[in-house]
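Subject line: Sequence and fold of a protein, written as structure tokens
Enclosed: The protein record, placed directly beneath this head.
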Amino acid sequence: MTSFYASLEARSFWKTGLAEADPLGVPDIYQKKWTIQKDWNIATAGSCFAQHITRHLRSNGYHIIDAEPAPNGLPRPLHEAFGYSLYSGRYGNIYTTRQLRQLIEEAFSDEPQDLLIWEKNGRFYDALRPNIEPDGFSSRQEVADARAYHLERLRALFLNVDLIVFTLGLTEAWVHKDTARVVPLAPGVVAGADQVHTYDFVNFSYQDVVSDFQAIMAVLREQRGRDLHYLLTVSPVPLTATASGNHVLAATTYSKSVLRAAAGFLSDKYENVDYFPSFEIITNPAARGVFFAANLRSVLDHGVQVVMKTFFSAHPPGTEAMESVESHTGISSITDVQCDDEMLEAFSK
């Protein structure tokens, strides 16, 4: 051997691995650590990009648990507007690992947690999932009852799941000063404008993200008496806005860099954690932005299809389902994804 590089595969070099490769399907970008078994119970959670993954896994034969199905009589077009059918629980978008950690800890806690309730025009909102009831609840007691049921269903979910697919979305968040609990949206966006002073802005670090996820793994291992599998992805969707004081491009680069580094560390360290490169597939330079809509944020349907085709190449569904994946290649902007942070556009100057 004349060099450490002499025996490397084509995927190891920029020229052959990317510049000369198919930009609409980078070959060998993902090599799975383990195989997803057909009988595994799968839970999904994360930022709004995770909704694409949930739908494609469900439609291609994987067993996605729905711990909080929509009530009978609610028309299907309204399911997602009320927080149903988006993920495995009615928790809405979970943008940070701290938010997921606190949700899991709350689900298994024997101590009652103080409710964080926002009010607007006489209606009441669960601050930890403010968009699940578009018009809010009629009373604080309704919020409390809905949250108690939510946590009960999540306990069953996390005790019975074999794989959690989690899409890391953001490092920026808002924290309630008295309880240190993280909310997915700043107060005043949906409701709670009178409580802005009770929250602080936080921008989580690499160590924060890693520590939070390790805590998640520890809690679930203790509660279940056994480990489970985790598949991590990083959302390729840039920040809508930043409260960091930096330019939104620099803030986006920081956030995605931290999340990608943390996901890579966790995947390298733990055999039961794998990383799937949806972020790299969408943002790779060879694609020249073709996967993004004109707003440079929304991922087009064609981009989602490339991501999922790469995933299913490693974790194949049934033959008929795979043919469906390959035939669905229309290019259109995704408008049926529930993204809380898009509401921040209303504050743009």
Notes: The mean pLDDT is 89. The longest helix spans residues 248-269.
